[in-house]
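$ run holo --ligand "tryptophan" --emit tokens
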Amino acid sequence: MSPKRVLSGVQPTGVLHLGNWLGAIRNWVDLQESHQNFVCVVDLHAITVPHDPLILAKDTLSTAALYLACGIDPQRSTVFVQSQIPAHSELCWLLNCLTPLNWMERMIQFKEKAVKQGDNVSVGLLDYPLLMAADILLYDADLVPVGEDQRQHLELARDIAQQRVNARFGSEENPVLKVPEGLISEQGAKVMSLLDGRRKMSKSDPNENSRIGLLDKPDVITKKIKRAKTDSEIGLEFDNPDRPEANNLLNLYSLLSGVDKTAAAKECAEMGWGKFKPLLSDAAISALTPIQKNYSELISDPLELKSILNNGKEKAEEVAQATLKRVREAMGFLITEC
Ligand code: TRP
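-- output --
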């Protein structure tokens, strides 16, 4: 039996932060040992809200470089850029025509983002989850590692594959599309904002101090941790509902230092914030230094990076084209090649 296939993606908007790394990329790195890993930079998703054409390409390349810097190995994982494979847009169109509009209108993330865009909501923003479904379904993915906030989108992809494609155009023995399973990251890996322990660390938070970027320099990391929200209690602890900041920062310490949760809780049980924060800063700096070193080497050789992405494109395209052909045939399109 061939190893199960995993597909994951991140948008090339803004610099990736600790939440992206600890909650997502680090898992992909582990998964590549035992799975067939497909990792894509979803640049077509990045234009569903107004974007700056002067930085799209640069952000796409640097996001790919960060994946690699974090340990995604192009020998073992297929790393590619979504927009370079037209099959994503094409399958998205086919799915568009098979999906009821009201399935899309009830997506929570769409409703939230649409409020922020006011009068300027693009059709693409509504369509975002179908493009994501196309990303997943094109590669016959068995597993899709996503955060809790993407659970609804993954369910949508499953429902479409099952009810709208397989049920209508396939048969029990001969399904057109593989129905993927989600690998929803466990609570432990969820990193919250440095300024509010109840909110997720997010690229879209306007306040830079709410997150630590993977490329933040040591003095910036130290400064951000110094400013991180605390409470008036002494001693760090997990799972006290009244102390979300203590939970988050202790969790971060455990994830970054590799000290397991029980040991971290014990180590910091009586520690005041003044002593804890430098400890956390050191752990963050030590964890990020090797990634930053890898990154600066990779980004200084854009030709090599592009060649890695071209290789990824070739491998991805082969799989994507085969799936697209299956769907075209099942849906009854004229096929003229012999
Ligand atoms: N929507 C995802 C997010 O914001 C990104 C994404 C796009 C994705 N296509 C995907 C994730 C396919 C997993 C699989 O996190």
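-- notes --
The longest strand covers residues 5-10.
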